[in-house]
């Protein structure tokens, strides 16, 4: 599944590049304006994947969850030197490059290695940090594993889209390599013995081990180039003036050794703060925020999805002149296409693809994508409900002098709605759960919030149990409400 997602993101990135090349012939001439545009806008949007301590991770700061870490400190320094404000946008690591190319973020600071393959698509600054790789294992296996060559017949995990993932694929023998989008997911899989080890950068490995007594770290012995073990800031291709300006900041950071002297120690303090109180009750605000966004997405998607579904169903039932036939063909094609593609791809397309033309917020993009998806399914429910109404009802209404529109509105649709209410209720329940998909673009619903708690506390199972219970409460409550209205309609 992760490989498919990575392939889809790669294809989307290629499409973005093609549009940029053929749709914007003046991009080369506009390269020197990249710095001026940021300074004029007054805001620098930093893309990051906050599940990679001590580079970037979530912590509770003054009662609120915030993204912290040494990369955030670097981002703040860059923004200050540019004379602009820093805005942090969180998303999965393998979505960052696409977000940069589509203009969702202005730069990426996420422990990203400036490999030759990545340099073809984005511009990098000078490297600001050079580390290495280690493999995190369960402490009970410390005598069993010594390095990457010890995992023959076992399973080694790594974050998809990273250089350590590629190294694990190429430099291990008889070892199954499994990729996941989140470091916290990898650690959970390790502790539940789904993985035998997790390859990650040395500072991150040390952060997890120092905060979890059940884990240990061993040398990886990966053979890596200098670029694959260094971190740099990524900017959109052609941002020459912006990169040159930021290089001055990076060079100052290295000259004054700010990463080791200030930024890493500051990150370490937040790591210790996270483990002071790791009870789930301590994070009730995070879960409450997740419920709020889950309900917003669900209610809005149900409302707009129902409207779209009614229009599509009526279009598919239309017969007669050329216009009605055309609308029927369009509606049929839409329904088949939406039902034939994964919702996850649709969410990414709305957020990243349409982002080339309209800069939609993540929440808005998620609502649009889920509404469009729901509309296709609702259309089929309504079409089936309309066809289930006896033709005699229509004939009786027309004999009383009612027009086609009045017949549909006052006679057919009310009866159809009564027939399809259980199906519509099921769609509503499904949307509550499907709203979790929008977490991949950074919408702070329940799944996203659970990942924050897992990153904060280094506890893998407890947050999952909490959101399972919360999802059940939401769906059970919604089911009881829908059943109440169903009984009311049956007695009407």
Automatic annotation (TrEMBL):
The keyword Transport applies. It is a multi-pass membrane protein. The keyword Metal-binding does not apply. Keywords: Amino-acid transport, Cell membrane, Membrane, Signal, Transmembrane, Transmembrane helix, Transport. Residues 1-30 form the signal peptide. Its main location: membrane. InterPro entries: AA_ABC_transptr_permease_3TM, ArtM/GltK/GlnP/TcyL/YhdX-like, MetI-like, MetI-like_sf, Solute-binding_3/MltF_N. Residues 291-482 form the ABC transmembrane type-1 domain. It is found in: Cell membrane. SUPFAM superfamilies: MetI-like, Periplasmic binding protein-like II. It comes from the Bacteria. Belongs to the binding-protein-dependent transport system permease family. HisMQ subfamily. This is ABC transporter substrate-binding protein/permease. It comes from Lactiplantibacillus dongliensis.
